Amino acid sequence: MGRDPLRGGLIMYEFEKYLAPSQHEVTELVRRHPFALIVSNGGGADGAPTVTHTPVIIERMAADGGFVGGELLGHIARKNPQWQQISDGDSVLLVFSGPHDYVSPTTYADDPNVPTWDYAAVHLTARVTVLEDAADGMHVVTRTVEELEALEPTAWDMTGSLPTFERIVGGIVSFRFEILEQRAVFKVSQDKPREVRQRVAAASRTRGCPYGDVAELVERIGGDE
């Protein structure tokens, strides 16, 4: 990553040959892999960034169907000091990691060669608003449950648990993120011939795809033949 001189934030380098194939793929990665990193400036040793792992969900996409101009929601524990280091209007980085896996040269069937790593990731730079009010907290946690339960085979009905939510919601601080910039990398062997991609996908499945089903992306997001 490099320093963005316009915002003072961190940005991910986008390889031209590994750009996201579509906005739909970017949106689905964020939706299906919502356990994100919230990265804010300072707070760490010698001014290093502070990072929290937490669910971040889509509240509203932009009018054009993309993230820039849209809003996401997230929350962290009130005991976590990161929220006290963030002021309304600050820029933060949201990092979403999709499926990824090691690629052994054995899949290439030629030598010499080198190993690599296939992966998909989305970085969203956002302007943050800190939401300390309990009503805002209830909105964020119920929206989070709605989004995550929508990914389940059978969605859980939270109605009976809302009084419990109300009792404990004071233990979190929530955020609204207005998205300023989107960057994405989908490096899934698309620079390799079809037969190599097939071997890469098969090897990942044989290994067990320990970091998500990257094999599906390798097969579906192909390069030029």
UniProtKB/TrEMBL annotation:
InterPro entries, alphabetized: Split_barrel_FMN-bd, TR_PAI2-type
Pfam families to which the protein is assigned, alphabetical: FMN_bind_2 (PF04299)
Top-rank lineage group of the source organism: Bacteria
PANTHER family: PROTEASE SYNTHASE AND SPORULATION PROTEIN PAI 2
Protein name: PaiB family negative transcriptional regulator
